[in-house]
Specification:
Elements (H helix, E strand, L loop, with lengths): L3 E4 L2 E4 L4 E7 L9 E6 L6 E6 L6 E3 L7 E6 L4 E6 L8 E7 L18 E2 L3 E6 L1
Parallel strand pairs: 2-11
Antiparallel strand pairs: 1-3, 3-8, 4-5, 4-9, 5-6, 7-8, 9-10, 9-11
């Protein structure tokens, strides 16, 4: 059974930084691509970032490119999302996601239905 548990959310002023963490249970972490989605009140869920099972390939939404960085630590079975220069429009619940085991080393899925595992979400609030 795979469980994803996010932490690190909170409230910050515009221009500030936060780092989200996602702890993975289970023994197949290294076989899964990982990512982050977010959903703001009244808006649809959207892709934020993804990282391949190898950790070499990453992909970002245009809205966060250059401000957010996704990374993974295989020794800790943890995925991180470093968020800098935060804006009020980044306010949302952030969800950590993971695929089922993949054969390809470089896949970085952007579609929600490509991810089999979802965390419970962590709130990020950015005030102006």
């Amino acid at each position: 059974q795979v469980q994803l548990v996010e932490s690190g959310g909170g409230s910050v002023q515009a221009g500030g930084s936060l780092r989200l963490s996602c702890a993975n249970s289970g023994r197949t972490f290294s076989n899964r691509a990982m990512g982050w989605f977010r959903q703001a009140p009244g808006k649809e869920r959207e892709f934020v970032a993804a990282i391949s099972r190898s950790g070499v390939a990453t992909d970002y939404a245009d809205s966060v490119q250059g401000r957010f960085t996704i990374s993974r630590d295989s020794a800790e079975n943890t995925v991180y999302l470093e968020m800098n220069r935060l804006k009020p429009e980044d306010t949302a619940v952030y969800y950590c996601v993971g695929t089922s085991p993949l054969s390809g080393w470089g896949a970085v899925p952007r579609e929600a239905d490509e991810y089999a595992y979802w965390g419970q979400g962590t709130q990020v609030t950015v005030s102006s």
